[in-house]
């Protein structure tokens, strides 16, 4: 079984989608935290504050899980990249990384 450059590109696109999800969740965590802090500042003893804080904790945990998935996906990508390099001996991993991953956040050749 071989991995083609096209397959590697598909893996890269999936990685970009994970990155977009991570960014969206990070933004949601920040926005929700601001709402919780505002609510607590406005009325510290309101019964809904505890539920809002629990929702924020759950959202934060979800964001951490997506971050972990993103880190694992980087490993998947680089493993696949090595397979492509073995098949196409003239390509070096850094050459492929620059071409395919130039827009993927956080990955360096």
Question: Would you kindly provide a written description of the structure presented here, covering whatever features stand out?
Answer:
This protein is mostly helical. The chain has one domain (5-100). The chain has 3 helices and no strands. It has helices at 5-42, 48-87, 93-100. The longest helix is centred in the middle third of the chain and has 40 residues, at 48-87. The protein is rod-shaped. The two termini are 25 Å apart. The model is unreliable at 101-109 (pLDDT under 50).
Structure described in brief:
Helix content is 79%, strand content 0%. By secondary structure, the chain is mainly α.
Overall structural domain count:
1
Q: Please report the distance between the alpha carbons of the first and last residues.
A: 25 Å
Low-confidence stretches: 101-109
| Spatial shape | rod-shaped
Helix content: over 70%
Number of strands: 0
Rg to the nearest angstrom? 20 Å
SSE series? HHH
Report the biggest beta sheet as strand number plus sense, adding barrel if it closes.
Answer: none
Helices, by number, come to 3
- Secondary-structure-based class equals mainly alpha
């Amino acid at each position: 079984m071989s991995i083609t450059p096209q397959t590697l590109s598909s893996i890269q696109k999936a990685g970009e989608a994970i990155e977009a999800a991570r960014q969206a969740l990070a933004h949601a965590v920040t926005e929700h935290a601001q709402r919780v802090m505002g609510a607590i500042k406005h009325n510290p003893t309101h019964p809904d504050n505890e539920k809002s804080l629990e929702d924020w904790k759950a959202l934060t945990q979800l964001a951490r899980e997506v971050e972990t998935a993103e880190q694992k996906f980087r490993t998947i990508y680089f493993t696949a990249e090595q397979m492509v390099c073995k098949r196409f001996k003239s390509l070096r991993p850094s050459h492929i990384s620059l071409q395919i991953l130039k827009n993927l956040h956080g990955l360096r050749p």
